[in-house]
Design brief:
The chain is α+β, with helices and mostly antiparallel strands. The chain contains seven helices and 31 strands. It folds into five domains: 118 residues, no CATH class; 114 residues, Immunoglobulins (Immunoglobulin-like), CATH 2.60.40.10; 90 residues, Immunoglobulin-like (Sandwich), CATH 2.60.40; 105 residues, Sandwich (Immunoglobulin-like), CATH 2.60.40.10; 27 residues. α3 runs antiparallel to α4. It is globular.
């Protein structure tokens, strides 16, 4: 398949469906497709550049696993992309994203150089925690050379269904990426199974000294990638553990900043009451602490144990601040003073009633008169109370259908409302969805939504009556011609 073939198919699909198509492409040299596929209102994500290869380890692909785990967890395409880039920072594989139609993909932390705005507001996940996941891992260990008889690695794994295996892959200092010839690269790193004899989620493995000596003769650094797989095939986002050997036994200078990834709450979500702000912090050597900032204020500090990967959770009572948009910033520090942060915006909505219509989409924008069409309407509860909503769909000013929803605080639901177009005149119609205001609701400006981007049109059904009349007329003409011909022959 060529990039031009794919571009043509996508354009045809968009023309036929009036839908936007986005492309996530994980393969060697996938970045070479960006310039051809690039278009307005289209997101293109590739796992590497036009000249790089993609790593794959048994059942998990280096870019796809962290990216899709983040998508599944409910994050936007941009946030999932940023997360995958963080995970892959130590590799030679560079993911790219283009969503501004200029044909140029960017990596690093988006938005950047015009890319990221569309992806930041596009979601395709289900808000599920991405099990299995590795919540903790031991900090970097440093030894003098020669190595001890064995080095113990440790990680804590959380799982929802039974684990098939937990393993580490050793990337030695003498490993060089092989030639790819445009195919996925299987590094063939040495693999070590981890065990959990106590069944408490703490997995360990001892790496014998021979496995270090066979790849190095002195000061060197070994990288171990830890992953886990459940029996249903779900795979954890890998984490890195480092083992270093130096002449003195002291760690080398640490110049790499730690990283932090906020899992909950989601960007631009509506929150109320006491919320938990959680996620994962990582470092190449050893983490030290995390800080929670709300706006310009430092409100909490969490000290971290001897970990290179650490789950964290802060509790914050939102009733202590005013309703409205707030910035949450998590700042992470490693043991040598390096720091970085991640911020997100959420909307505090305490002790109020607020229901909204967020989406209105017909199954088709063009139907024949008399044909049925389904219209999807999404309503959300942005308040702090369980609400009963009456959702009504209108075509121009005529009520078509209605549905009753019961929504918990912070939840949303999509209903499919049927419209039988029999009896409606041909022409364009404006579709509008409304939900009745709830008791105590102050802001009702967002209680209805009108379809404006795509008009809805009823066209006349191809008239079978006219076809019948035409058929009868043609039949009569044929009969007349036959009779005239017969009469002439008799004459």
């Amino acid at each position: 398949m060529s990039d031009s073939d794919l571009a043509t198919w996508i354009s045809n699909l968009e023309s036929a469906t009036n839908a936007s198509v986005h492309v996530i492409y994980a393969a060697c040299q996938s970045g070479s497709f960006i310039d051809t596929l690039s278009a307005s209102d289209r997101i293109i994500v590739t796992s590497c550049t036009s000249y790089q290869f993609s790593y794959v380890y048994e059942k998990w692909e280096a870019f796809s696993v962290p990216f899709w785990n983040s998508i599944k967890s409910g994050h936007s395409i941009m946030d999932a992309f940023n997360y995958a880039c963080q995970i892959m920072a130590s590799t030679t594989q560079t993911p790219l994203l283009d969503d501004n139609g200029d044909g140029v993909g960017h990596c690093g932390y988006l938005p950047n150089n015009g890319d990221g705005a569309l992806a930041a507001n596009t979601y395709i996940g289900h808000c599920e925690w991405p099990y299995p996941w590795i919540s903790y891992a031991i900090a970097k260990q440093t030894f003098t050379w020669p190595p001890p008889s064995s080095v113990t690695l440790w990680a804590k794994v959380e799982n929802k269904t039974k684990l098939a295996h937990v393993a580490v892959y050793m990337q030695p200092p003498d490993w060089n990426p092989p030639d790819t010839n445009g195919t996925l690269v299987v590094p063939n790193f040495e693999r070590f199974e981890m065990t959990d004899p106590d069944h408490d989620g703490n997995w360990t493995v001892n790496i014998p000294s021979i496995n270090f000596i066979s790849h190095a003769s002195g000061a060197s650094k070994f990288i171990f990638l830890v992953t886990a797989e459940e029996e249903n095939g779900d795979t954890a986002t890998p984490v890195i553990i480092e083992v270093e050997f130096t002449a003195s036994g002291s760690p080398s200078d640490d110049t790499e900043a730690p990283k932090v990834y906020v899992e909950r709450p989601l960007e631009e979500s509506v929150v109320y009451g006491t919320i938990e702000i959680n996620g994962t912090a990582t470092d190449d050597s050893c983490l030290q602490k995390l800080e929670l900032h709300i706006g310009d204020n430092l409100v909490d500090t969490l000290n971290i144990g001897f970990y290179s990967v650490s789950y964290f959770a802060f509790n914050f009572n939102t009733t202590t601040i005013e309703n409205g948009a707030i910035e949450i910033l998590i700042k992470v520090f490693d043991s040598t003073g390096n720091t970085s942060n991640q911020s997100l915006t959420v909307y505090v909505n305490n002790f109020i009633h607020d229901v909204v219509v967020t989406d209105l989409t017909p199954s088709s924008n063009l139907v024949n008169q008399g044909e049925p069409v389904n219209v999807s309407v999404t309503a959300a509860n942005h308040g702090a109370y369980t609400e009963t909503l009456n959702v009504t769909l209108y075509a121009n000013s005529t009520a078509i259908a209605s549905h009753v929803l019961i929504l918990e605080p912070g939840n949303f639901a999509t209903v499919s409302l049927p419209w039988n177009t029999t009896g409606f005149n041909n022409g364009n119609y404006t579709l509008n969805a409304k939900i009745s205001s709830v008791i105590g609701e102050v802001d009702t400006t967002n209680n209805d939504l009108t379809l404006t981007e795509n008009s809805f049109t009823i066209i006349p059904e191809f008239p079978s009556v006219i076809i019948l009349q035409l058929f009868m007329i043609l039949t009569m003409l044929v009969i007349i011609l036959i009779k005239k011909k017969t009469a002439k022959m008799k004459a």
